[in-house]
Amino acid sequence: MAVSGRQTGRPTLEEVAARAGVGRGTVSRVINGSPRVSDRARAAVGQAIAELGYVPNRAARALAGARTDAIALVIPETESRLFAEPYFLDIIRGVSAELADADMQLLLTLIRSSKERQRFEQYLSAQRVDGVLLVSVHGDDPLPDLARELGVPAVLNGRRSAGERVAYVDSDNVGAGRSAVGHLTGRGRRRVATITGPLDMYVARCRLDGYRQGVEAAGLPADDRLVAAADFTEEGGRRAMRELLDRCPDLDGVFAASDVMAAGARGVLREAGRRIPDDVALIGVDDSAVARLMDPPLTSVRQPIEEMGRRMARALLQEITGPGPEPCRVVLPTELVVRDST
Amino acid sequence: MAVSGRQTGRPTLEEVAARAGVGRGTVSRVINGSPRVSDRARAAVGQAIAELGYVPNRAARALAGARTDAIALVIPETESRLFAEPYFLDIIRGVSAELADADMQLLLTLIRSSKERQRFEQYLSAQRVDGVLLVSVHGDDPLPDLARELGVPAVLNGRRSAGERVAYVDSDNVGAGRSAVGHLTGRGRRRVATITGPLDMYVARCRLDGYRQGVEAAGLPADDRLVAAADFTEEGGRRAMRELLDRCPDLDGVFAASDVMAAGARGVLREAGRRIPDDVALIGVDDSAVARLMDPPLTSVRQPIEEMGRRMARALLQEITGPGPEPCRVVLPTELVVRDST
DNA sequence: CTCTACTGTGGGAGCGCTCCCACGCCGCTT
DNA sequence: AAGCGGCGTGGGAGCGCTCCCACAGTAGAG
């Protein structure tokens, strides 16, 4: 009953051909969905495949053909520390869902050192994947350009700058900031501050822009003392909140560019005796578990993360099969989730 | 300057051999670290490789040899919903770290439907990976046994039952329960309840066993009314907490088998006017972000998740190279992280 | 009735490796 | 002095596929 070992004879295409009474070429054509096959042959091959339980050998395929049926999802460790972690899992979910339908494999690559980065660059240049998905938000990340030079299709999650030339899927971060501030001002807040992410990240600058637009739209005066830069971490959020409280004790609303920073801010506000939302309304971005479980539950701007993953995968698959002239540029809308903190 | 396209001539082993003035066999031996090579040849080959920027072709290797240099990490979607999500990211981190050193690829497979499950089973039987890492906590999961039958090395994260026959890396869930309850009783709590995970999961039963041991160790009477089963979700935690409060209004401590359930419990306790920790001390498991950010910050039992990932990968690599007679059975200790909820 | 233009087909030639056999060459024993 | 074992080596065979060329058969055009 037990299979005898690793080398156990899996049926080959040749055997399928023999059983179906056709040539190798025909079987190959059937498998790859070529139209140039008679119905009779197709049926015979289909049956032989079923009877033999034939599964094509990927390695042979990759060697003979020019593709590998695999794509890499690259997550630089720096990012994974910054973002709320569930973010990546949702991205992975979306990517994986889309890939499964295309029968492609997902290769996950975490890059946490320059050595690993180098190894991955080798990978890329060795054409060992058909394409790459890059979570790349730092403006100076060279990986996307490297991929382009090597002719490896690539799709980014997020942009590195306004003029991003590589295909990307992003969420509407400006809109997120704008609607967050709009929500705050809509509830009568007049002194709305913001805690930003690191400003070398385009995503952080976008959310800040959105904040400014929101302030202006409400007819409030712009005041740079209401802006404090942080780094997407809880501790950064604490520091920024202290700073803001120091500079503008009269603030009555805070837009934190991430839930995690909002959590830090909440701690400081509480220590300072400010009630949420009574004295200060607080809003974050991500709609993560943290937001739901915080006390009080945090109003937050939701990004369609899983959908971004899906779209990225779809865009990449398309670029692999037929590289269109225009790289994919998708910006997905965000959505306000109102809870008790505002 | 630009590389001309996808097919651009990457150097092959043959070219390296020519340049180094040796035969193909010798180059192959150098690359694979065979000792049967003279220093002179080794040096020449090394130089040729460097000059040409040679990177071996994986597909060719996989086809010729019997291995693929890739392993799969399988995450059933059911699990990913149940566990706190950061759990998987930490596992992935550990696995990835260990794999990078071995120059192995990590293939991530999310299984969310029976169709995808079937596809993965095909994968397995097609020997397309050298081994599998399975996150498998349900007692009836057939995947581990399938892998065994197919002769594909497998390592589980968690056990399906006490008599697990497949190699595994788990954390000391009994110890986790025991120390959690010990901590509670150590602080003078006498009526300690528990909210368990789904009892068809071994991990949930273990934590419950630990709870019982802790209660007994403290010389307290066992009382089944203090035990409420839930399902590792926040809502489940809420329900269970209501139940407990109903049955035993005099309880003064709660051990929730996950942080997320503890979060649910906290909400109910607060609604019932119980102060934490003054009236009821609360403790969870996972030491997740949720615990840190909860209000009050939640005391929790930490599992060394990333280390588990690392150990799994190491065990699998070992099993791949030389299948020892004894499957790996590792149980890692947990650690109490005390915060303000107790 | 021949000529062209398909469409469906079989099978050769590789893809770039690893495995392994066979061969020289060395230093050692008898 | 001839014989022996080993080491380092070269290169053939083959892994299972895809690509593509060549060929039969059929059908339509002249």
Please tell me about this protein's structure:
The structure is a homodimer of 342-residue chains. Chain A has 342 residues and is α/β, with parallel strands linked by helices. Helices cover 46% and strands 16% of the residues of chain A. Chain A contains 14 helices and 12 strands. Chain A has helices at 13-20, 24-31, 39-52, 58-64, 77-82, 86-102, 114-125, 143-150, 173-186, 202-217, 234-247, 259-271, 289-293, 305-321, and strands at residues 70-76, 105-111, 131-135, 154-157, 168-171, 192-196, 227-229, 253-256, 281-285, 299-302, 329-332, 335-337. In chain A, strands 2-1-3-4-5-11 form a 6-stranded parallel β-sheet, with helices on both faces. Chain A has a 6-stranded mixed β-sheet with strand order 7-6-8-9-10-12, with helices on both faces. In chain A, strand 9 (281-285), helix 13 and strand 10 (299-302) form a beta-alpha-beta unit. In chain A, helix 9 runs parallel beside helix 10 (202-217). The longest helix of chain A has 17 residues, at 86-102. The radius of gyration of chain A is 26 Å and the shape is elongated. At the A-B interface, helix 4, helix 6, strand 2, helix 7 and helix 13 of A face helix 4, helix 6, strand 2, helix 7 and helix 13 of B. Chain A binds a DNA duplex (30 and 30 nucleotides) through helix 1, helix 2 and helix 4. Chains A, B: InterPro entries: HTH_LacI, LacI/GalR-like_sensor, Lambda_DNA-bd_dom_sf, Peripla_BP_I. Chains A, B: Pfam families: LacI, Peripla_BP_3. Chains A, B: Keywords: DNA-binding, Transcription, Transcription regulation.
